[in-house]
Amino acid sequence: MAASVPAIGSPAPDFTVETTAGAPFTLSSVRGQQHVLLAFFPLAFTGVCTEEMCAFTEDYDAFSSQDVRVLPISVDAVPSLKEFKAKYRMTTDLGSDFKREVATAYGVLHPAFFSTRAYFLIDKSGIVRWAFVEETPGTRRQNAEILSEIAKLAG
After folding, report:
1. Is 10 contained in some domain?
2. Domain limits at 49?
């Protein structure tokens, strides 16, 4: 049975994914140091996903100045994600959930076996502070909305 979406105020499920940085990323490794925005996206090289990842690059400084690590995650393999990142000159490293374990743990694995577009803002203590799961793969949150949620962490 698939897990449900983690509740606001609950501990974020820990995970490790391979990344385009060439090293694995483990969520708990940044506990106490950074907030993390997990941004699940369906597939590399698709229209809305490309717009979304490029927007994260455009607003990279806005996220990093708030002490937030943005980690987009898809089910694509690392070589595909590396090509996607290079083609669009993305600044954010991308995570590969090729085995679908992270999407399953966060309750966002789509029946077609890719992840639903979803966002989880996890504070430095490892607690889920905001989450949004899109109704369809063709919609996404704008960075202004996400940054507004991040601003609430400081309050």
Report:
1. no
2. 26-154
Q: Which pLDDT score, from 0 to 100, does residue 155 have? A: 54
* Nearest in space to 8 (alpha carbons), one of 111, 131, 103, 96: 131
In a domain, 4, yes or no: no
DSSP assignment of 96-133 equals: E-TTSHHHHHTT-B-TTSSBPPEEEEE-TTSBEEEEEE
Residues known to be catalytic: 49
Q: What is the mean pLDDT of residues 36-56?
A: 93
Rounded percentage of the chain residues whose pLDDT exceeds 70: 97
pLDDT of residue 1: 40
**Tally of domains in the chain:** 1
CATH no. for residue 44? 3.40.30.10
Two structure tokens written together for 152 = 């609430």
Please tell me whether residue 58 adopts helix, strand or coil conformation. Answer: helix
Residue matched to tokens 């919609």:
139
**Cα distance between residue 119 and residue 38, in whole Å:** 6
Secondary structure class of 3 (helix, strand, coil): coil
Name the pTM for this structure. 0.93
